[in-house]
């Protein structure tokens, strides 16, 4: 899990400095790692080799999709956040697996980004991301808050149980 300085740098890179493709892939990659960091403590103590057997490439939990499913099964978040994570995964896959030039403004990508409802749950029903943020910024905001949430949840379960109200939007 990145430390505070690294996280600040990643967040800035997500929406400000990086290309659309880099933002999509970086946001999902950091989120994938954050999700792994909250799943792992739910298991018994494992050796590094056992962790690699579970989370390495071609392993049962080696994909973002598998981590999303197991995180939901472990009750780390609710169905709305699972849906948002799946939308983030779809966006990442679109950018990672096409040779064509695509952007967050591409109709198919924007349609998936528009399904991410996290910001609306966090900021209230009156918030309409399409009027305030572009699709890249909306995606980056959702990734950022989910990364912070998993970082917070993974570090101290006792503190998480006394979490600020805004984190409840993620638990749903």
Question: Mind explaining what this structure looks like?
Answer:
It is globular, with a radius of gyration of 16 Å. It has helices at residues 4-17, 20-39, 48-55, 64-73, 79-96, 107-114, 118-123, 129-132, 135-155, 157-160, 168-171. The relative contact order is 0.15. The chain has one domain: Nucleotidyltransferases  domain 2 (Four Helix Bundle (Hemerythrin (Met), subunit A)), CATH 1.20.120.330. With 172 residues, the protein is mainly α.
Q: What is the CATH architecture annotation? A: Up-down Bundle
Assign the CATH class.
Mainly Alpha
Radius of gyration: 16 Å
Structural class, judged by helices and strands? mainly alpha
Which overall shape is indicated by the principal axes computed on the Cα atoms? globular
How much β-strand is present in the residues?
A: under 5%
Low-confidence stretches: none
Q: How far apart lie the N and C ends?
A: 23 Å
Number of helical elements: 11
CATH domain topology: Four Helix Bundle (Hemerythrin (Met), subunit A)
Would you identify the CATH H-level superfamily? Answer: Nucleotidyltransferases  domain 2
What is shown here, in short?
The chain is mostly helical and 172 residues long. It has helices at residues 4-17, 20-39, 48-55, 64-73, 79-96, 107-114, 118-123, 129-132, 135-155, 157-160, 168-171.
Identify the notable features of this structure and list them briefly:
172 residues; mainly alpha; Four Helix Bundle (Hemerythrin (Met), subunit A); 68% helix
